[in-house]
User: What shape does this take?
Amino acid sequence: MDRNITKTRQIGAELVVRTLEMRGVTHVFGVPGAKIDSVFNALVDSKIETVVCRHEQNAAFIAGGIGRMTGKAGVAIATSGPGVSNLTTGLATANSEGDPLVALGGAVDTFDALKQIHQTMDAVSILKPITKFSATVGASDQISEVLANAFRTAESGRPGASYVNLPKDVMTEACSHEPLSPPVFAGLGPADGGAIKEAARLINAASNPVVLLGMLASKPANAEALRTFIGKNNLPAVGTFQAAGAVGAMSFGNFGGRVGQIANQPADRLLESADLVVTVGYDPVEYWPQLWNNNSQRAILHIDVVPAELENCYRPHVELTGDIAQTLEALTLQVKRAQKSALSSEILELINAERQLLHKRAVACGGTPIHPLRLVHELQQFLGSDITVCLDMGSFHLWIARHLYSFRPRQVLISNGQQTLGVAFPWGIAASIVRPAEKILSISGDGGFLYSAMELETAVRLKANIVHMVWIDGSYDMVAIQEKLKYGRTSGIDFGPIDYVKYAEAFGAVGLMIDTPEHIAPVMKKAFETQGPVIVGVHVDYRDNHELFEMLHENSFH
Assistant: This one.
């Protein structure tokens, strides 16, 4: 068939799919409908696998998880009206977490867009505040342009979410354009040379500099450069929850631990002691500056792909804006520090001693329900290089985020932007696709489990090898603890029990229960050896959860 004839007969939906193929998209996740069915139909003839989900929110979660692990935008797709509005939480989560995601939404015909008919919705306006890019394809000639810019925006700078509105008539119109390919060479270089020189001068002159690692520090290329920067200059470091895995095992002696949510961790003492803070790939949403830098006059060096958003508690003295890895490499050449300060060394020694005590305490935690520290201790034994861990939000999340250590970038996926319930299991599905040779462990509390548990059917259909743990206590405990601290009582935090084994079996999955601390290792071993999805339930003793919220600095450190 003549190539030109083929082009003239191409419709908008087919160009959309060809663009996805050109961008290297291997999977799309979503729910079909009449306003987007032309795109679903075009996907049948492509190399892309269409994964039908049970809720559009979870489709967005899965796509965001793929974006976090690969650096390339995952793709979610939904029909008009409630299909698109159901994407909202997933897009907001990806955008605040720094995960590249492109969502495609169906829409009514362009000539009906302003009429109050079935599933009309101004989706672009609804989603604009929670995305980096939100636009309608107004005509078939715009398809390549809008999609190219949607992907470019989602993946560049600090990554995030893009939304593209696809009217039904535009998708069925003839279209002769080709997909727009990205530039062969693109990207940022190192930060300004003068800024690097001044930053090096400040680090060399500081009495007690401390590095604060953020989400983008855990990007693999950035983590490699970071490890050299820390190791060569013997710099102490702390990290937000989302920076998990950025610091390598060789530099663990310089790592004070993770900070986030509440300023009451051993690593907060190290951060508090700094006369100069060097932030790397950090966004304030990860750990609010008023918690760690309130009223402080110390200098801050900001190393990131974008300038800082200035606020009262975060006013960088020097900004090093550019490619993080290249900037760190250039900075490393000019920083000349061989020894940690006596103060940092003393604090790190105390932190290491506390780790040893915590280890002994965890081993000694017996009885049922099972203490969180014992669970974290046992899970640490499984955390080799061949496992990915995906965490939901809840009290359990704080225990794990603070005490489970990882030395591989993006090995442990943690939500701390929107702190969204329900992300863990969809992220687990994403991990099973991106890393099929690895063991996948996702964890939620019983409060967050049912937010996305319907995707167990999706996981079974995909034959995904996922072990999902549910920490059971029968309440929204993280809310309950904070209510008790504020009001002396709780409200709206209790819900009923679930038989997790029967739930798993109803979907064609395997269900297991951990009954005692001694059963943790053998049950988890069995779960990982089982093909397909496995749900593991465990009743947890949260009596010490008040520790998570104690020792607060009410106003500031200084």
